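Hi F.,

I've been meaning to write this up properly since the lab meeting, where we talked about keeping a consistent format for the predictions we share between groups. The idea is simple: the sequence comes first, exactly as it goes in, then the structure tokens exactly as they come out, then a line or two of notes. No screenshots and no reformatting. I'm using this chain as the first example so we have something concrete to point to.
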Amino acid sequence: MRLATLKDGRLAGVLPDALVPLADALRAAGGGALPGEMTALLADEAATVEAARAIAFAARPENAALRLKLDEALLEAPLRPGKIIGVGRNYGAHANEVGGPKLEAPKLFLKPTSSVCGPGTAVLIPRAVTKPDWEAELAVIIGAPAYEVEERVALDHVAGYTILNDISAREFQFDQPLAMTSFAKGLSQFCPIGPWIVTADELGEPWALDVDCTLNGESVQHGNTRELIFSVPALIAYISRFMRLETGDIIATGTPSGSGHFRNPPRYLQSGDALALSVSGIGTLRHSIA
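Output, unedited:
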């Protein structure tokens, strides 16, 4: 199942060529009410069953009136996470281009919820930022709360997956006496996510997903989640040793090589740039730079 949030705040299901406002479709199918917010929906197993029922009902040929044209401009970020935990240097090739010692544990940082924006956003880079960079990532969305979970059952706590651009102001990471990583990655609109959530049962286990980014039509990043140094279950198990992961929290799993700062010469985001970030099995998140 694919779930999205419309610009007007309504929750929607996603069909190959259409969006389905869930409340309207479920009402037409004779069902009851659904939670009005994505995190609440993901927390309610019965509600997710009803959402699937609504999508299937709207997909019938005779129910075309319940569907909206699939247009990314209609979408907001699929959810507002309670917290976003980022993982640095988690692909082998990216770790090599960044440099530094071999990691014995995940390198973690936080992005605030205020950095979240949705597909189609024209991200406004602060005028004082001189080295804005891109990072295409698979984002893991927590379903059942997780605390001190074992790696072997960690995926039982995943509600679904989406795509995230971990935009970073590199001067705060690399040009300061002490790195300010969370600040570098936490500025307003520095976390585009979307275009929708693909539930864990539909995507399957995230062992071999292609992660790609194009900038103005040029391929700048390509990787695969089989290259992750710390797998999705390993990340959930490690993080949950120290903090409780709540429904709707996001883990940004790291980026492949090819970010602008590590190119020769470096390349940074500029006004008018158009980005397309893709993860196989999910789709493509598109946004621009204002």
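Notes:
The radius of gyration is 19 Å.
The CA atoms of residues 6 and 105 lie 38 Å apart.

If this format works for you, I'll send the rest the same way.

G.
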